Amino acid sequence: MSGMHGGGGGRRGRVSGADVVAQRAENAEAPHIPNLLRRIAGLFAPHRAALTVTVVLVLISAALSVVPPLLVQRAFDEGLFPPGGTPNVQRLAVLVGVMIAIYLGSQLLGVWQTWLTATVGNSVMGALRVRLFTHLQAMELSFFTRTKTGVIQSRLQNDVGGVASVLTNTVSSLLGNAVTVIAALVAMLLLSWQLAIVAIILMPLLVFAQRRVGQVRARIASKTQESLSDMTAITQETLSVSGILLSKSFTRQQTEIGRYADENANQVKLQISQQMSGQWFFAMVSIFLSSIPAIVYLVAGLLMGSGTTAITAGTIVAFTTVQSRLLFPLLGLMRVALDLQTSTALFARIFQYLDLRPAIRDAPDAVPVPASGDAVGRVAFDGVTFAYPDAGADSRPTLDQVSFTIQPGQFAAFVGPSGAGKTTVSYLIPRFYEASAGRVLFSGVDVRGLAQRSLVSQIGIVSQETYLFHATIAENLRYAKPEATDAELEAAARSASIHDTIASFPDGYDTLVGERGYRLSGGEKQRIAIARVLLKDPEVLILDEATSALDAISERVVQAALDTASRGRTTIAIAHRLSTIVSADVIFVVDAGRIVESGTHTELLAADGIYARLYTEQVTSPASVSPSPTSPSPTPTTPTAPIELTRLESLTKNPR
């Protein structure tokens, strides 16, 4: 997937606060998309009427902008200082009324134009953002494992966000500035071609000075943005829950304060430099803007003194008024090429993602998972070989000719050394990855022939790293079944041995769990995850080292909840602690991508192979403190052990 490293870099639409050279370099890195302009036009096709009206409004507004200076000439020459010497108040009133009407009309047209461009631009942006988000939801798991989250977020936020400015800024700026410059030049020539030549000669000097100062400001602004990004990164790192825990546990708060203070001092210095460069910029522009009219006055005086041309006071006032309105449209036109290039680069990066085709898609004749039959809930691998997409050509496959069958209702476990391929098995069953060779069968059907939505709906997964949203417990549970009633939530929570704990919280099921569930203990989070899966009520349950990160007490409670959850359904456990799977119906030992042993716990111990060695190492290791669910539990010190465990967790890990 070449080109995935680009992500917008935080720039949006028109170049603002970014060095022009850097912006051009970024634009050059944009991917090449065939028929890009036609595809961009297709995005705006539903808004043809609004776009047509917008273009007409832009042209009218730009043309009207140079009419008032011409009326100023008439106001001076025909109203204030007519040939007779006495002001013509009636004529002056008419001209002033027309000027006010034009100003009012221009502003009304401007408001209408802004509403149209904002509506169209943001509508296209919103539709494109949803379209891109929807497309990303369909991408396979491997896409997200090899693409940085920040790059994806940049496409959604920065690149798509810049699309709105394409219409509101770039297109309207191009049309409006072009018409304004042409109309202003025509008006200047009509007023006085001699003075027009003087202004045209001096104008490039002003443009050159503005660009030089603007480049200095852009470089400072770019450094300022980088410094702000660094400050934001420090804030996110140190003020997140994990960052605070880390700094407090190592007593590094002062170090983090020092880092932030140093970057803040740099930010203050850059802000001062930016503001001072702005002062110099406005000072130079002011000098030039004041100098050009002064020079025009001088030339006009020389021409009037020589008697070679008839220049009136009204002509001079009108001319300088038109000339003063020429600068910024001219500067805008000089930037239009870069603006258009930036706009197309934004679209190219967006279309690059939209053109990605998910590696795993439903077949045209895909069918739902069978709802009945002897094979419902059966999971089988038939000569499955698998290598991850980013694996080297010479590396061995993660799974190599793996075959097994798990009958409906069986409790099967996969054990083996780290990196043996155990978790990969759990990825292939719901078709998060596609087998390189062989077949993965679910309920008797090859998963490639099943509709993905139907397949995944029949599988529940409880992993080691439980993910909870920053929401209430009820909202986290209803993620599995949005229409679930309160009674169904309670039933699932009771089956997961977490209801009593939830009920002990002041807000009960309305308790906010915090970011990633940090307000709950590990055991509480895991049992909520189990309750969420139970609410889904899947045919097959996959437990991917669901208790390996827990302490012995929490593990015992969670293991009891898992035992309840696995009843009556096919259960596949990926286990590191062998004490949790000794009661499994069948245990598959995976080593170097192959199943090297299989059988019950007793059979594998008798075989004295890899499993026996791993089990012996864990049993004899001092770190092995996890009790077996089949062995007698320690005598409780209180009448009821589960009540004591719940009370202990509530006292120590309740939401703070």
From TrEMBL:
ABC transmembrane type-1 domain residues are 53-342
Q: Which stretches are transmembrane?
A: 49-71, 92-115, 181-209, 280-304
Which PROSITE patterns does the annotation name? ABC_TM1F (PS50929), ABC_TRANSPORTER_1 (PS00211), ABC_TRANSPORTER_2 (PS50893)
Keywords from UniProt, A to Z, are:
ATP-binding, Membrane, Nucleotide-binding, Transmembrane, Transmembrane helix
Location of the protein in the cell: Cell membrane
Q: What is its main location?
A: membrane
Where is this chain compositionally biased, Pro residues type?
A: 629-639
State the superkingdom: Bacteria
* InterPro entries for the chain: AAA+_ATPase, ABC1_TM_dom, ABC1_TM_sf, ABC_transporter-like_ATP-bd, ABC_transporter-like_CS, P-loop_NTPase, Type_1_exporter
Topology relative to the membrane: Multi-pass membrane protein
One GO molecular-function entry: ATP binding
Which residues are in the ABC transporter domain?
379-617
Asked whether the UniProt record includes Transmembrane among its keywords, one would answer yes
A Pfam family of the record is: ABC_tran
Where are the annotated segments for Disordered? 621-656
Q: Which Gene3D superfamilies match?
A: ABC transporter type 1, transmembrane domain, P-loop containing nucleotide triphosphate hydrolases
Q: Which PANTHER family match?
A: ATP-BINDING CASSETTE SUB-FAMILY B MEMBER 10, MITOCHONDRIAL (PTHR43394:SF1), ATP-DEPENDENT PERMEASE MDL1, MITOCHONDRIAL (PTHR43394)
- What this protein is called in its record is ABC transporter ATP-binding protein
